[in-house]
Amino acid sequence: MDQPTLKDKNEFPTEEIIFSHIGKSKILWISIFDYIHKNHSDFSEEWRYYNDGKSWLLKVTKKSKTIF
Question: What's the predicted TM-score (pTM) here?
Fold first, then answer.
């Protein structure tokens, strides 16, 4: 099993950092977010550090509703 990533509270998850972890799946990441930006312009993305899990997570919302 892979070790958890994005654990450093002081290191904001930039695209460069994300892509270094997901490797060849970079094209899928880009495709998903291109689709979201094109078809769901009312969605917002926010990286948040959660102290309970001690890691960064990406939260995508529509107004106050969490999508994923």
Answer: 0.81
